[in-house]
Design brief:
heterodimer; A: 80 residues; Non-ribosomal Peptide Synthetase Peptidyl Carrier Protein, Chain A; globular; B: Butyryl-Coa Dehydrogenase, subunit A, domain 1; binds flavin-adenine dinucleotide
Chain lengths: 80, 397
C-alpha cells in the first residue's frame, strides 16, 4: 500500500523534494504540497483504492504524511 | 451590568456599547473627511485605544475584556455602519491579535507581548500580500534569513499594508528559510523599532480610502523567539481565515446597514410628504430589507459556528482544518462581499439623485465605493477557484 501511495504522491503532490527521500512520517505540506495539490492526491487515492474519503476525513492532518494516508486508507478498507 | 476598566467619562454597560458610541459620536462625524482626504481615521482609532478596545480579545486576567468573536464582530458592524475605513482597521488589527492569542501564548516572547499590547494599546498591521504572489496567503517568496546572536532578518515586498505608517507592529508570513518551498511558511511579528517601511506607491483608491494601504518594502529584524512555533498553515486555517472572513463580513454588513438606513429615511420622508399613498420606492425598500436580512443571517450564523468551534480544543480544532469548514468560510466571504455591493446599489436606486449627491443627507456614494472593495479583498475568483477544487472531493455526507 505504501508504494502505491508514494507513486501517487510522486505524480500528484508536486513536492519540492523526491518523495522517496521523505520518511513515512515526513511532513508533505512542509515538503511543498499545496492545498490544491492535496485535492489531486485525494482524487487519485480514491480512484486507485476504490474508496471515498468521508468529509470528516477531508482535513489537513489526514493527508500530512505517507503514514497518515496509510492509516486513513486502512480505516476505510478494513471491512473488505 | 458588566464591570470593565473603561475610561470614558460616562458609564456604558458593555464594551460593545462603548464601541457603538464611538461609532456614532466619533467615527461617523469624521467619515466624510477621512474618505475625502484619504486619511487615517485617527480620531476613531484614538477613541478606541482610550476605551482600551485594542485588547478587547485579550483575556480578562491579562487585562483585556475577554471578548469572543461574536462580540467583536458586532463591534465591527457598529463601526462599519458609520465609517467603513475605521471599521476595517479595527477588524484587521483584531485578526492579528486573535492569531497571537490562539497560537503563540505558549511562547515567552508573546506572553510579554500581549501584556505590552494591552498596556500600550498597540496597533498591529498585516503584511500578508506579496508582490508576485497577489492574494494567495498560502505561498510566499520572502524567506527568513538567520543572523547572529539568535536573531533573523526578513524583508518582504508588500503590495498593500493597511495603516502601515500608523502601525506599531506588523504580523506576516514568510518561507521558513531560503530553501523552503513557497507554502512552508512561518508567521512572525516584527516591532516598530526593528523594521523600516519604504513606501513604494500611493493609496488613492475608489473606496476604503482611510485604511491608508499603499505598497511598502518591509525590512525587518527580530529575535528567533518572535517566530511562531505553530506553522502558518495552522494559523491560517484555524484563525486568519475564519477571523478575516467573519470580521470583514461584519464590516460589510455595517456598510449595508448604513446605506439601507439612509434609504429608509428617504422613503419615510417621501411617505410623510403624502400620507395615504405608499411611495413607489417603498417596494424597493421592502426588497432590500429582505436582502439585508439574508446577509445578516448568513454572517451571524457562520460567526456563531466559528465561535463554537474555536472554544472546543480537540474536535473544534479538527473541524477548523477541514475542507468543509474552509468551503463554508469562503462561501461567507464571496456571498457577503457580493451582497454588500448589491444592497448598497439598491439603496442608491431608492434614494435616487439624493443618494447620488455627495452633499445630501441621503448620500450613499461613499458606501458604494467602500462596498466595491469587498470582492477584491482577496479576489472572489481566486476564492471560487479554491472552492471549485475542494468540491471535487467533498461529498456533503
Ligand atoms: C481595502 C483593502 C485593504 C487591504 N489591506 C491589506 C493589508 O493590510 N495587508 C495585506 O496583506 N493585504 C491587504 N489587502 C489585500 C491585498 O491588496 C490583496 O492582495 C489584493 O486585494 C489582491 O490582489 P490582486 O487584486 O492583485 O489579486 P490577485 O490575487 O493577484 O488576483 C488578481 C485577479 O486574478 C484573480 N485570480 C487569482 N487567482 C485566481 C485563480 N486561481 N482563479 C481565478 N481567478 C484568479 C483574482 O480574483 C483577481 O481578479 C487589502 C485589500 C483591500 C481592498
Amino acid at each position: 500500500m505504501k508504494d502505491q501511495i508514494r507513486a501517487i504522491l510522486k505524480e500528484h503532490a508536486r513536492l519540492a523534494v523526491d518523495v522517496d527521500a521523505l520518511a513515512d512520517d515526513g511532513d508533505l505540506y512542509q515538503a511543498g504540497m499545496t492545498s490544491h495539490a492535496s485535492v489531486n492526491v485525494m482524487l487519485a487515492l480514491e480512484g486507485a483504492f476504490d474508496v471515498e474519503f468521508p468529509d470528516r476525513m477531508l482535513r489537513r492532518g489526514v493527508f500530512e504524511s505517507v503514514a497518515a494516508i496509510r492509516d486513513a486508507l486502512t480505516e476505510l478498507t478494513k471491512d473488505r | 451590568m458588566r464591570d470593565h476598566p473603561l475610561k470614558t467619562e460616562e458609564t456604558v454597560s458593555s464594551p460593545l456599547e462603548a464601541v457603538q458610541r464611538i461609532a456614532t459620536e466619533i467615527a461617523g462625524p469624521a467619515a466624510d473627511a477621512v474618505d475625502r482626504e484619504a486619511r487615517f481615521p485617527v480620531e476613531a482609532i484614538d477613541a478606541l485605544k482610550k476605551a482600551r478596545m485594542m485588547s478587547a480579545l485579550v483575556p480578562r486576567e491579562l487585562g483585556g475584556f475577554g471578548c469572543g468573536m461574536i462580540e467583536l464582530a458586532a463591534m465591527c458592524e457598529a463601526l462599519g455602519q458609520h465609517c467603513a475605513s475605521a471599521a476595517m482597521v479595527f477588524a484587521m488589527h483584531h485578526i492579528q491579535v486573535a492569531s497571537v492569542l490562539r497560537h503563540a501564548m505558549g511562547q515567552p516572547y508573546y506572553r510579554d507581548y500581549v501584556t505590552e499590547l494591552t498596556r500600550g494599546q498597540l496597533l498591529v498591521a498585516s503584511a500578508t500580500s506579496e508582490v508576485g504572489i497577489g492574494g494567495e496567503m498560502r505561498a510566499s517568496k520572502c524567506a527568513v534569513a538567520p543572523g547572529a546572536g539568535g536573531r533573523f532578518t526578513l524583508d518582504k515586498d508588500c503590495t498593500t499594508i493597511s495603516y502601515g505608517a500608523q502601525a506599531d507592529d506588523i504580523l506576516f508570513q514568510a518561507r521558513r528559510n531560503a530553501d523552503s518551498p513557497p507554502n512552508d511558511q512561518i508567521f512572525v511579528l516584527v516591532r516598530k523599532k526593528d523594521f523600516t517601511l519604504t513606501q513604494k506607491g500611493a493609496w488613492d483608491t475608489l473606496g476604503m480610502r482611510g485604511t491608508c494601504s499603499p505598497p511598502f518594502l518591509l525590512q525587518s529584524t527580530g529575535e528567533d523567539g518572535q517566530i511562531f512555533a505553530t506553522p502558518f498553515a495552522d494559523v491560517a486555517s484555524e484563525t486568519q481565515v475564519p477571523f478575516s472572513h467573519v470580521l470583514w463580513s461584519n464590516v460589510w454588513l455595517g456598510i449595508a446597514v448604513g446605506a439601507v438606513r439612509r434609504a429608509r429615511a428617504f422613503v419615510r420622508q417621501q411617505a410623510r410628504a403624502k400620507p395615504g399613498t405608499v411611495p413607489p420606492s417603498a417596494l424597493r425598500l421592502a426588497e432590500v430589507a429582505s436582502m439585508l436580512q439574508s446577509m445578516r443571517t448568513n454572517v451571524h450564523d457562520v460567526a456563531s459556528e466559528c465561535e463554537t468551534l474555536m472554544k472546543d480544543d480537540v474536535q473544534g480544532t479538527k473541524a477548523l482544518s477541514s475542507i468543509a469548514f474552509a468551503l463554508k468560510m469562503n462561501n461567507l466571504k464571496v456571498s457577503s462581499s457580493q451582497m454588500v455591493a448589491q444592497i448598497v446599489h439598491q439603496a442608491l436606486q431608492i434614494c435616487g439623485i439624493m443618494g447620488y449627491k455627495n452633499d445630501s443627507k441621503f448620500a450613499v456614494g461613499r458606501h458604494l465605493r467602500d462596498a466595491l472593495s469587498a470582492a477584491l479583498m482577496v479576489g472572489n475568483d481566486r476564492i471560487y477557484a479554491t472552492n471549485a477544487s475542494m468540491l471535487l472531493v467533498l461529498k456533503d455526507d
